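Hi everyone, sorry if this is the wrong subforum. Our group has a chain we'd like a structural model of before ordering constructs, and none of us has done structure prediction before. Sequence below.
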Amino acid sequence: MKTHALILSLCVLYGHAIAADVTAFKSRLLAATTKHLNLLLNKDGTVTTLKGKGADGEEALAFYRAFEVTGDQSYRKAALSLADRVLHDMREMKFGVLPIKEKEKPESGKTFIGGGPPALGFYTANVAYILHKEGGRGEDLQYLGKVLNEFPWSEEGWWSADIDVKTGESKQPLTKPSIINKSAAIAMATGMLSEALRSVSPELSARLKQKTDKCLYSQILPAQLEDGFWHYSLSGNDPKDKDILGYFMLTTHVLMELQHFNSAYREPELDAALKKAQTFALNCIAPMTDPNTGPACAAHSTAGTPKHYTLADEPKRGFQLGLVLIGGGFLDEGIKIMDASLKHFDFGNGGMDGVHAVAPTASILMHLRP
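Answer:
Right subforum, don't worry. Here is the predicted structure as tokens:
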């Protein structure tokens, strides 16, 4: 009986220690998130001009999540102003797809201004989340759903990798599967809109849900390897010049967000796939990431995969990994890597370096809410 009581006491003490560690970590995370966001606010409460593909939409969601955690109305106001900024820019484009950069068509060599996923998935999903939470924005939600529904789609279960924003034409034939993270990012957005439009536009909601399910259950989940890894492309090819582990973490991230945006996807099949992916990240990516000192993941490395993730050089990989690990319940390792990443947070950066830090920190705050 004495031994049993001792074990029970130790378990209680250990549980209190874990709770205290997580509480302290959440405080550090919130302090970093709000410090960054406050630096983006002008004295009159408006948001400074941001730059980079999709920065407005990403920062909008970070502001809104900070509002949800703190109740601070200045963050809500900033989120809504950025969401409206994204909507305005989308409506200025013929197909609602924001331009990203000049690209080249492989067949003709002609250049065009391209746009599409993963940025398209993020800014549409993030804005839709905010508007859905706010209510009374049915017309804008229908517009976002229409943009996604009209983006080039293959009935095999994937979307175009990008389009000419002036003509709407795909860079490559739709018979060729897109990179996995690009289709996953749009699936995140169509899944979000399918929920947001259920009462506003049932027919459009159902169509978006159909596409989400086709992509997710016919393409992405079957493409996962037994060890939890997703290749760079749905066809299983990994280009030698790409950091394929970074793309893997991005795919895992957007599928985690899909579950947060739409509770219908918190179901056993996707749960199991995400757990496998998060476990892969723990076993294969965490050892090669600061502050750990292990080597690269030999089973899934190419010439473009770093031998080690040095966070001073690539802090975004630490933020990505921390989110994946904490979302999987691997708190000890996730907190350790996030704390190392926070040392390299580029506070107040209005470009993608700021986004790559604040988007995961704000997302983790939501994952750790009761």
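For your construct planning: The CA atoms of residues 13 and 229 lie 36 Å apart. Strands lie at 101-104, 111-115, 153-154, 158-159, 163-164.
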